[in-house]
Amino acid sequence: MKGPDIRYNVLIIEDNPGDYVLIEDYLEETTIVKKLHWAENFNEAKKILTENNSIDIILLDLSLPDKDGEPLIKGIQLFSNNKPIIILTGYPDADFAIKSLALGASDYLLKDVLNSTVLHKSIIYNIERNKILVNLRRSEQRYSDLFHFSPLPMWVFDRETLNFLDVNDAAIAHYGYTYKEFLSMDITQIRAKADMPILVSALDKVKEAHENLYHGEITHIKKNGDYIRVEVRSNSFEYKGRPAEIILVNDVTERNQHIEAIEKQNDILKDIAWTQSHVVRAPLARLLGLVNLLSDGKIGESEKKDFYKYIQDSAEELDEIVKGVVSKSQQFDIYKKKDEN
Question: Which domains does the chain have, with CATH numbers?
Answer without folding.
Answer: 8-139 (3.40.50.2300), 150-251 (3.30.450.20), 255-340 (1.10.287)
